[in-house]
UniProtKB/TrEMBL annotation:
Record keyword Signal present: yes
The protein's name: Amino acid ABC transporter substrate-binding protein (PAAT family)
Highest taxon of source: Bacteria
Coiled-coil ranges from the UniProt annotation: none
PANTHER family, alphabetized: ARGININE-BINDING EXTRACELLULAR PROTEIN ARTP, MEMBRANE-BOUND LYTIC MUREIN TRANSGLYCOSYLASE F
Record-linked SUPFAM superfamilies: Periplasmic binding protein-like II (SSF53850)
Assigned keywords, A-Z: Signal
Extent of the signal sequence: 1-18
Amino acid sequence: MIRSALVATVLAAGPAQAQVADLVSDDVLRICADPANSPMSHRDGSGFENRIAEHLGQVMGKPVEYTWFPMVVGFARNTLFAGKCDLVIGYAQGDELVLNTNHYYTSTHVLVVKADGPLAGVESLSDPALKRLRLGVVAGSPPASHIARHGLMAKAKPYDLMVDRRVEDPSGDMLSDIEAGGIDAAVMWGPVAGPLVRERAGLKAIPLLKEEGAPRLFYRITMGVRQGEDVWKREVNSLLRREQEALDAILREAGVPLVDDYGKALKEGG
């Protein structure tokens, strides 16, 4: 059942300014997700975003259904905007492609090193211990600017960002390269690295809380809905507010590093 089939009047500025219809299902929690984006989402239900979706569905009294599409260019167009699903579980705050809900967690990039190695105490990319070492970094990601600023880019090894993770696994490759000695450390997005490091004995993820200068390395994570669906957004916001403690527990259990809203310290409570 669809809440409304009414499409708002197209504004004089043209079709690009048209309001979308409110297509949110009343009967099912329809989730847009990547089928192979572990540890966040996976078709087998093992991702922490899957667990968040299932928790929200249970609280709402709705079964959860997925529309799967790789998180590459065209993801939102082929899922959310096509009316096939109603909610993306993880979206960076400020992304204007979707209508963001309130953020429900904040996380940061981390430095992944061998837990018993000489870098286990490093807390900043400016640490002299990193000089002349080979770091792994996702090409074009925020940490790349910091690595360049500290003179570490010449020996850095880049890994692709926008890939179809059904056939490529840059995050897993980075961790395997650390274990094999191909790189000395890697700078990764915490919600990816934290859970994966938990599965690999001998590695350690260090939240980068002391980095100065732009771009920032922490981000507030929201959920995404279609532009114009303000009623649905408010409903999700209310749900997130009520279930914050439960969502924190899911994220912590998964190994996601949670930080305060300003990226300066680990979030209290875990």
